[in-house]
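Pasting as-is:
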Amino acid sequence: MQKNESMAIHLVSGGCGFVGRNLVQRLLKSTNDTLFVVDDLSTGTLPENWLADTTCIENKDLKIYCDGRLIFLRCDFRKFLTEIREQPDFINQKYGFTFSKFSDVYHFAAIVGGRLKIDGDPMVVALDLSIDAEFFYWICSYKPKRVLYPSSSAAYPINKQTVSASIALKESDIRFDQNLGQPDMTYGWSKLTGEYLAQIAASHYGVSVACVRPFSGYGEDQDLTYPIPALASRAARKEDPFEVWGSGQQGRDFVHIDDCIDCILMAIEQIHDGSAINIGSGRLTTFLEIIELFSGMAGYKPVIKPLLDKPVGVHSRYADMTYVANKFKWQPKISVEEGMRRVYNASVAKLTE
């Protein structure tokens, strides 16, 4: 199979994970471009599990979908970077393609997980530092057209997210020329470091990089290791008593994946200097409020059973969206109520399959 050199081919690392696959699906619908996805499937799932058209042909260790528009390589992204650094033309030589260069690069490859992973295995999560270091080292010589780096709200100082000092977090709360504060575990440190590397890549090497700080993204196809689909599934089964990690009073800024993708695509178009913007709703919602929403949809009122021995992270984390609204005229379209209804309906559908 060959690709015309004039056709845009974008690289998506970690493109089979929750955010990555939603971005891939959006780009397949909204563009005519080709996507080269690299994912080791440590947390993601094969494209045939989430594509509408599962027709697939194979070219050695590649799987090719959507009439050639989605090319999937199952591989540790660090190994892929080593190969492409040592032999820049290895894709063409190995698979018989004829494209010259990736255009946009979306970097979602990371060791991710819910609170249990972040708190329970922080040294494994710290390997994200190596993934990002190798990634930025590569792009500074490769120089793709544009780069999207997803940071995280975990990069924000945890002392601004306590019971007594909870504030809406502004982009300016992270400044590399001032005291950065303590981010959230090794995951927060890795993302904070990634943002710094993004600014270095932009200022020292002329790479166009946009960073985003998603808050608590959720959606219908998110797996049950994350709280929102897990809570929706329990409500759909009418769990009573209803277990919640911690007291349930801890709050987050929940933003639907469709809005996350909208903001990501806006960011890569408009941000080039490595700076970061929030992706959130600007609204703090507690887990008890989420349980009340889901149980109301299920038509019952359960007894809440706090699990005080479970990891809960910071007490309150939510975004100040003023800068994004004023500078980029962007705001989320899907309310928490509508988004949670979508997740609940998906949970009910799974129970009846």
